[in-house]
Write a structure and sequence with these properties.
The complex is a heterodimer of chains A (784) and B (45). Chain A is of the alpha+beta class. Chain A is 48% helix and 17% strand. Chain A is elongated. Chain B is 73% helix and 0% strand. Classes of the chains: A alpha+beta (784), B mainly alpha (45).
């Protein structure tokens, strides 16, 4: 997924990029900051310079710029056992395989370390060393000096680092697959053999051999179903595993009996094949669920920082987050992430609240303003009065919303489930009636049981089990080729019933970056861009990009949250907020002011540009009969403008994350099925609350993990394509189910009348499966 | 006809070998980081 998004250089007029982190820098500079220069030197000196040649920068990931401040005390997160200390850290900034290599190469040289291994899939670093937990800081410093950010995992928050249940399912799947393959070979010989003169003795041998392979395999790989069925029955309930278990056991028993009496052959292959397909479904389902849990864990890890508490005598003591209580005063240094909710008491500056509000621009802040857990301080030191800790913070609320929504989504009954619920009682009733009828008609007991079992076997949901997964599998592959990654195939079903599409604004309907909107004299623009080239603030970068190749000027001072200033021979030149440049009132929208001594300040207005096909996609969706809405945390004026451009009449501005999720929940309670398309971390709750969710590949990690669909590229077209494909897929699934029903209607009377021979059963069962698969292949033909 | 018995035994052994191989790879944690493994192969030195 990452490889697809990786670093095609954008067509922006950036002169050069930093040799370490790859962010744009002014012409003539090799590095964007001293941290990058130090990291670059460190890597070159260690002889690891090939990192720069081999890496692929992924712009979706946090850039590799070393940060100051925020060094949580790692010792408290270590686990010690038998003199070996272990620590698990989340790594932010993993760009590609070269990063894994770099981190592991650096750690390989660290003394005392037993193992330091990066798991790229889950972005985790596991460290193990001989010695005390106090050594942790030293190892972490080496990695953080390279520009990665390390966040400790609370040991209590890692529920299952090694996913035991998933491994057990995989093992069962492997055993079932092995048995199914081999038993099928033997069964084929049993069916075809007699026509070519195979003797009864050989056939009996093959039957017994099949039994020998199948019985232990069924006992082992059927265990998840048997256990669940037994648990349900003991509590007086019934679930899908009951008919499955009953069917498998009946088939196995009948086959053993057939082998004993030297009868017409067994059905071992049906039983093992059925288990294999059912287990495949279970494994895929389990994968999806683990991924969702990983998302919540990563959010929780963001809270696992320590806090500096201001004592009454003015000293600052560092302590763990769970030792902070409401009413404490907390000191937040520059570059530190807040772990609690609170109100600013002292200090004025800027904070990055993108985690909570989703707005990429730093917000100015002063005494009396509320700040939330997850906020990053970008300006001078702030003193904050704690109003909520731990489980009461807004961030924890987000995590809870995500978990609740995931649970609600887990309760969504898939089409297969609903069909099965209808199917199972009918089948069991048919089998029972067959048994009673034959007993009543006076044939011997064995014949009656044989007929009843034949009903169970012929109706074993083979075609039913294939009818839906095969379409989902093909559609998933087709959409992947078109640049759309479907995380759970089951999402296709929910996608097909969507009637409302809800977009987030920033980064979803619009391009992730801002662009300069106002027309300014090129001479002034060049002069301002010289200052802007020295800053990494998003607005300054947009300004520098608009001016093209402009060299950075010397002697620029940056005032975080306010602006840039430079002393020249004719006075001070300033670039920054309206207040910073001496303007009484701020203008409308996102802006920068440029003040030169003795002249009228100049305003640079910035605007978001709509993704190129946003309006077209919205129109297409509306033509499909969708209600298209817009929910944003941004100001009403800019939301209205974007909505007008995109052709969306139904929009809401200034929504907090929980308000967005509540709005979606309300629509869904009113009967709508909502597809949420969003990218910010703050969209997490609504991505989870909506029936289906999609995120662009440029989205925050957590959003990508939560979303059912992740789409590549700078277009919104994939959203339409996924909806279109899902609807076509649903039609094909319905046809498949109809075919399976027809097959059963034709075959069940045969089975009930006791006329089914293994020959007929095999032909009918594979015939119906084949028809279903062939029809499913048509899902490949969606217009891309 | 006796060749059949030998062939059956061989095919079963091969199948079992595959199964054991898979179980071993599962147990030794080779499925824990599929993405990382795909990239690591480029950097082994």
């Amino acid at each position: 997924m990452n490889a697809l998004t990786a670093a095609q250089p954008r067509a922006e007029a950036v002169s050069e990029v930093c040799a370490h982190c790859g962010l744009p820098v002014a012409a003539g500079c090799r590095f964007c900051c001293s941290g990058c220069e130090a990291a670059h030197g460190l890597i070159e000196q260690s002889g690891l310079g090939r990192y720069y040649r081999d890496r692929v920068i992924n712009r979706a990931v946090r850039p590799l710029t070393p940060e100051i401040g925020n060094r949580p005390d790692l010792a408290v997160y270590c686990q010690v056992q038998d003199g070996i200390t272990e620590l698990t850290l989340a790594v932010e900034g993993l760009q590609c395989g070269a990063c894994v290599w770099l981190i592991e190469s650096v750690l390989a040289r660290a003394p005392g370390l037993i193992s330091g291994r990066v798991n790229m899939g889950s972005c985790r670093l596991r460290l193990a060393w001989h010695g005390s937990p106090e050594l942790a800081r030293g190892y972490a410093d080496q990695i953080e000096a390279l520009g990665y950010r390390l966040i400790p995992y609370d040991p209590a928050a890692i529920t299952a680092a090694r996913d035991k249940a998933g491994q057990a399912l995989l093992r069962a799947l492997a055993v079932a697959g092995f048995a199914a393959g081999n038993v099928m070979l033997l069964a084929l010989a049993c069916w075809v053999g007699p026509a070519q003169g195979m003797g009864p003795a050989t056939r009996a041998l093959l039957s017994w051999l099949a039994a020998l392979i199948a019985m232990p395999a069924i006992a082992y790989s059927g265990l998840p179903f048997f256990a669940s069925a037994f648990a349900a029955l003991r509590h007086g309930r019934t679930n899908m595993d009951v008919p499955v278990s009953l069917g498998v056991l009946a088939v196995t028993g009948l086959s053993v009996w057939q082998a004993m009496v030297g009868g017409a052959g067994g059905y071992f292959e049906s039983a093992t094949m059925l288990l294999f397909f059912l287990l495949l479904g279970r494994v895929l389902d389990h994968r999806a669920r683990m991924e969702a849990r990983g998302a919540a864990e990563r959010l929780l890890a963001l809270r696992a920082t320590d806090v500096g508490i201001l004592q009454s005598d003015g000293r600052v003591t560092r302590c763990r987050l769970d030792e902070v209580t409401t009413g404490d005063r907390v000191v937040l240094a520059m570059g530190e992430r807040l772990g609690v909710d609170g109100i600013v008491l002292e200090g004025r500056g800027a904070v990055d609240a993108s985690l909570v509000t989703g707005e990429s621009l730093p917000a100015a802040i002063g005494p009396g303003d509320r700040v939330f857990a997850g906020t990053l301080n970008m300006g001078p030191v702030l003193t904050v009065q704690v109003t909520a800790v731990q489980a009461d913070t807004l961030l924890a609320e987000c995590v809870r919303l995500i978990e609740a929504a995931e649970a609600a989504r887990g309760r969504y009954r898939t089409l297969a489930d609903r069909v099965a619920r209808l199917y199972a009682p009918v089948v069991h009733l048919c089998a029972l009636l067959t048994l009673l009828f034959w007993l009543w008609s006076g044939v011997d007991f064995a014949r009656a049981v044989l007929a009843a079992c034949a009903v169970l076997i012929i109706t074993c949901p083979c075609a039913l089990g294939l009818a839906i997964p095969v379409v989902q599998l093909i559609l998933t592959g087709r959409l992947f080729v078109a640049g759309t990654l479907l995380k759970t195939p089951a999402a296709l079903e929910r996608l097909a019933s969507v009637d409302t599409v809800c977009f987030d604004k920033t980064g979803t309907l619009t391009e992730p970056e801002l662009s300069l909107a106002s027309r300014v004299d090129p001479v002034i623009l060049t002069e301002a861009a010289g200052l802007a080239a020295c800053s990494r603030h998003p607005l300054a970068r947009a300004l520098a990009a608009a001016a093209g190749r402009v060299p950075a000027v010397d002697g620029v001072r940056e005032f975080p949250g306010e602006g840039l200033s430079r002393a020249t021979e004719w006075g001070e030149v300033r670039l920054g907020s309206a207040a910073f440049c001496g303007m009484a009132a701020a203008g409308e929208g996102t802006e920068l002011w440029f003040a030169r001594p003795g002249r009228e300040p100049v305003r640079f207005g910035f605007s978001e540009t709509l993704r190129s096909d946003a309006a077209e996609t919205v129109t297409k969706l509306q033509r499909m009969g969708m209600t298209v809405r817009l929910l944003s945390g941004d100001r009403p004026s800019s939301v209205a403008r974007v909505a007008r451009q995109a052709g969306i009449s139904d929009f809401r501005a200034e929504c907090r994350p929980d308000e967005k999720a509540a709005a979606i929940a309300r629509w869904q309670a009113a009967g709508a099925t909502v597809l949420m398309v969003g990218d910010g971390l703050n969209d997490g709750p609504c991505l989870a609350a909506a029936a289906v969710s999609a995120a662009p590949a440029s989205a925050a990690d957590v959003s990508q993990t939560l979303a059912d669909i992740v789409f590549q590229g700078s277009n919104l077209r994939p959203v339409w394509l996924a909806l279109h494909g899902a609807r076509r897929g649903r039609r094909i699934v319905q046809q498949n189910l109809a075919m399976a029903a027809v097959y059963n209607l034709v075959m069940v009377p045969f089975a009930m009348s006791g006329l089914v021979t293994p020959w007929l059963a095999a032909a009918a069962m594979s015939g119906s499966s084949l028809a279903v698969v062939m029809n499913g292949l048509r899902a490949r033909r969606i217009r891309a | 006809m006796t060749i059949l018995f030998a062939l059956m035994a061989i095919s079963l052994c091969l199948g079992a070998l595959g199964l054991v191989g898979f179980l071993w790879s599962l147990r030794s944690g080779q499925y824990e980081d599929l993405e990382g493994a795909a990239h690591r192969v480029l950097f082994d030195d």
